[in-house]
């Protein structure tokens, strides 16, 4: 499973939001190269404006029915699971019109007196929607690398879209009990609910669909399947300990690699 200490080096938002220290959870995501595992420039960790109000987590279990003539029941044969699929909606919201639009529409106040959506007290409710949509959509596209081929020829090869590291504090979403999962984005549907008079988006809903992966590029053991034993180890963290469950209990225990299930440090 993913190494918690290495993940927190990549995810500063996650590291600053240890359990027991945060009143409002802050979900975040970042992208790593599907070949090398290195952070993708431009896809550094970003926090979602709001924590998802609902979240879907489905698993495809590979039982298949084998029909036998004359039998009262089919024989169930397991071949392999199809993994987990996550789906949630993230809201992007801008309360104040851009300053340029405010200036065009105002007739009384001086431009200097207009409310600035970029001020620290206003920024939470005035996210740069265009930038956030562009960032989310960047998880959907491959990258093309150009290099030298045989005989001095130039070749271009595609690199898979980035792997997303999704962090949802408090959910214990990973099978090992941690809050961080590796995924690929398989759907990113954007609905523009409201627009300002100049065409800039005011309210946008993005429906994300992600498929969990067990590929960890750049590591010696790049594929790590999940077995029943991993869930059993995580289960011992949950049983009769409602205040201490999960791998990510607080920043100190993460950095010290204390109280981690064996799967999280393998």
What does this structure look like?
This protein is an alpha+beta fold. It has a domain at 25-57 and 82-142 and 156-224. The chain has helices at 4-10, 12-15, 99-105, 120-123, 129-137, 228-238, 251-255, 262-265, and strands at 28-32, 46-47, 56-60, 63-66, 75-78, 83-93, 143-148, 154-159, 163-167, 180-195, 201-212. Mean pLDDT is 78; it is low at 18-22, 107-114 and 245-266.
Percent helix range: 10-25%
Strand order of the largest sheet: 2-1-9-10-11-6-3
Number of strands: 11
Report on the biggest sheet: 7 strands, antiparallel
Structural class per helix/strand content? alpha+beta
Low-confidence stretches: 18-22, 107-114, 245-266
The general outline is globular
Span of the ends, CA to CA: 7 Å
What is the radius of gyration?
23 Å
SSE pattern? HHEEEEEEHHHEEEEEHHH
Tally of helical segments = 8
Gist?
With 266 residues, the chain is α+β, with helices and mostly antiparallel strands. The chain has a domain at 25-57 and 82-142 and 156-224. The chain is built from eight helices and eleven strands.
